[in-house]
């Protein structure tokens, strides 16, 4: 039973074409400080169409190196999940789905609670990295319902 | 997590759910309570459990309400029933429908203080476990031993014949009794428990019991104890994405 992702809203633009920006060498040469005032479109654009049944954007035209490591292949077609489809702005990314705390030891419950207070309501996951293996855990306060 | 009703097909699962709604667990427990009072049922202490001789009606209701388990004896005509300490104390102290003697020949029941001391002497963690057990029972969850899943309890939203359990429960003490139960002290314990429970489609529920400076000398101090409920779940990035978009099957914890 895996934890589920939170903070991911579903898109209802079922018929819109979504232009995906691809990473290019220009990004690597760009200034690392300051924020871009507006989106810059790259020369090589990919083209996608939201597929309601799949719940993902189907990539119709793919350009750029990023497709080597991005996307999900189903029945010979390549799709982009909701997170990848969003137009992500570096200067204003919105709230993240969750925050990740990298840990090598076992944080105590008090430490986890202190971390959660710093997260300001954004879900927290604890990432345990040992000997090259990575695991993620969520510790969530719950209230079991009173049953009939 | 929605309840997973048992049945060989969709209709059978719907029927199990309908039966559970028609006869909720709170009603069944209430019937058991009345029946035990009317029959003046009496148990007796036996090591780390409580035994009782029961009539057919009580036997039936104990099973429906999911308390205890039958015991095989040489005297086939006298059904025996065995309750855990938590179950027995709940019926005796909280529901006030069961008396418990010191042994099978005794005719004067122990009072709740005496029972509390006895059970505490046999099981150091009894105060915390009883608080956790009664907390869940008072919300009308069915609580059974979690031994086969490496947990303290498993909880069901109705009879185990009708529904799969949703949570494996660990009872951890907080405050003065910190780590009394000795669980989840290192990361490998977290891995171990979440993977084992995940492998049988349950979520790990941790109940933190804090006695807030109270003594544990009397059951009256239970009123000062507090409980916090937490779940601990593993997150797998790839699984998560798959699950979100195409409702992939849950990870069974292998690999």
The helix tally of chain A amounts to 3
Task: Write down the overall mean pLDDT of chain B.
Answer: 89
- By secondary-structure content and strand pairing, the structural class of chain B works out as alpha+beta
Fraction in helix of chain B: 25-40%
Strand content of chain A: 25-35%
- From N to C, what is the helix and strand string of chain B? HHEEHEEHEHHEEEHEEH
Physical arrangement of strands within the biggest beta sheet of chain A: 1-2-3-5-4
Can you list the strand order of the major beta sheet of chain B?
3-4-2-1-5
CATH architecture grouping of the largest domain in chain B: 3-Layer(aba) Sandwich
* Helical percentage of chain A: 10-25%
Largest interface: pair, residues per side: A-B, 35 and 45 residues
Q: What is the third-level CATH name, the topology of the largest domain in chain B?
A: Trna Endonuclease, Chain: A, domain 1
What is the multimeric organization of the chains shown?
Answer: heterodimer
* Biggest sheet descriptor of chain B: 5 strands, mixed
Into which percentage range does the β-strand content of chain B fall?
15-25%
Domain tRNA intron endonuclease catalytic (chain B): 130-214
Catalytic activity (chain B): pretRNA = a 3'-half-tRNA molecule with a 5'-OH end + a 5'-half-tRNA molecule with a 2',3'-cyclic phosphate end + an intron with a 2',3'-cyclic phosphate and a 5'-hydroxyl terminus
EC number (chain B): 4.6.1.16
GO molecular function (chain B): nucleic acid binding; tRNA-intron lyase activity
